[in-house]
Amino acid sequence: MPLRLIREVLEQSDRPRVPRREVLARHDLPANVLDRLEEIGVLSPTRAGYDADDVAIIEAIVRFRAGGYDEAIGFTVYDTLRYRDALAPLVEEEVRVLLERLTGEVEPEKAVEIIRAGREPLRELIGAMHSKLLLQALERAT
Questions:
Q1: Mean pLDDT across the stretch 97-110?
Q2: Count helices and strands in the chain by DSSP H and E runs
Q3: Distance CA 56, CA 126 (A)
Q4: pTM of the model
């Protein structure tokens, strides 16, 4: 399975990008916070703007801030690095396993289909497992 082909197909996203000015107009987020998220690599916009994952991250941060997770009590954009750093090894392992299981076994088009189909269920699985573990840890701490 040529990795180049899979990469090209995955990069040909049918999801439009959202320009920075639109993100700032649509969301209650200071421009300097957006700048910092880009500088630390949490967001990776192109000239065309932010992809759907970037926008989802922005929206989550806006909801955190609205709920009280803000600089006044010590929460900053740098807290996002904890999640990025924790997820990076998991993602590397996922890629290794995917390539190991798909290479030579599945046609490239089918591999891309499998990878795309797994995106949303994986988000839900990780979110649900995180929530469950967080509640368990809070119960143990109290």
A1: 83
A2: 6, 0
A3: 15
A4: 0.83
What is the spatial distance between Cα 16 and Cα 5, in angstroms, rounded to a whole number?
A: 21
> 87: Cβ–Cβ under 8 A, 6 or more apart, which residues?
none
Do 10 and 108 touch, CB atoms closer than 8 A? no
Place of tokens 């290479």: 103
Helix (H, G, I), strand (E, B) or coil at 49: strand
Q: What share of the chain is helix, strand, coil (3-state, %, to 5)?
A: 75, 5, 25
| AA identity, residue 90 | L
The tokens for 117 are 């189909």
Cβ-contact 43, 34 below 8 angstroms: yes
Nearest residue to 49 via CA among 36, 34, 63, 66: 34
Q: What is the CA radius of gyration of the chain?
A: 18
- By C-alpha distance, which of 8, 20, 24 is closest to 47? 20
| Region class of 74: left (phi > 0), else alpha (psi between -120 and 50), else beta | left
Q: What is the pLDDT of residues 26-51, one digit of tens each?
A: 999 999 999 999 999 999 999 999 99
Tokens found for residue 105: 């076994």
